[in-house]
What we know:
Elements: E1 6-11, E2 13-17, E3 21-27, E4 38-46, E5 56-61, E6 64-72, E7 74-79, E8 84-87, E9 92-96, E10 101-108, E11 115-123, E12 134-138, E13 145-147, E14 153-158, E15 160-161, E16 164-165, E17 176-182, E18 187-191, E19 197-209, H1 218-224, E20 239-243, E21 248-265, E22 273-275, E23 278-280, H2 283-295
Antiparallel strand pairs: 1-20, 2-3, 3-4, 4-11, 5-10, 6-9, 6-11, 7-8, 7-10, 9-12, 13-14, 14-17, 15-16, 17-21, 18-21, 19-20, 19-21, 22-23
Amino acid sequence: xxxxxxxESRPATPTMEGAGVKLHRxxxxxxxxxxxxxxxxxxxxxxxxxxxxxxxxxHPHRGIETITYVLSGTVEHADSxxxxxxxxxxDVQWMTAGSGILHQEMPExxxxxxxxxxxxxxxxxxxxxxxxxxxxDVESKEIPEVxxxxxxxxxxxxxxxxxxxxxxxxxxxxxxxLDISIPAGVRKTFKIDTYRRxxxxxxxxxxxxxxxxxxxxxxxxxxxxxxxxxxxDMSGDRTLIRFGTGDEVTVQAGPEGVRFLLISGAPIEExxxxxxxxxxNTQAELQQAMRDLHNGTFIKAxx
Length: 303
């Protein structure tokens, strides 16, 4: 067994998207090979409706999948194919844009005005970029959760883990998407197939992730020696941890526990031509997508 090295740990960056939604971006619109097959990850968490109520009005997607996971509040959605619905707390929408779709997402806060969710973009291989669009709307009650003896809880959104399989199926790049909560002071190791690219995103509490250069991790050594954990050395709220190659990730939860997403997938390793919400393999394909948008054939181009 080998611990995955930590290639990078960095805070998510405040930005604005849609019609004026304030959010934090962990990665996106930079080097698409870094976390291939994943292209972008946004954390849209706000305490005040003014920071999210304008939402994400009608916009196109082609060549990718968008994965929306709501923790609090709701998201009303509709698309050019006539689909409409609402995502509530704990729900997931896995949308395969394929050949092209126009849709909108309008968030609404909970009873106290808070809104929190994530959106991940997954790339599609060339063979699937022009497939017919489809939705997989998954209610919270359909997502399996496993609880270990030490209190660790894992929600399995997609992929197999600890003998359970997430409800999303038929997705490119063989992804695994886990929502993990570890109680205070607990140390835990999670297995990840070596062929996958992987990252973690901490959004509640703090934790230390072991690095391959220090097999037990700096904080793990301190904990074993009976020393007090130094929170300054730990990854906290809205932190991205990008891992290198290996088959396990070891985490030491801080004094208040930690909750994070652990996401991995098989790299596609194809050329990327990217403009906003459209991701193709070549500039010619990208230009064709722009022409389709302008001449009204964008959502009729599947083959």
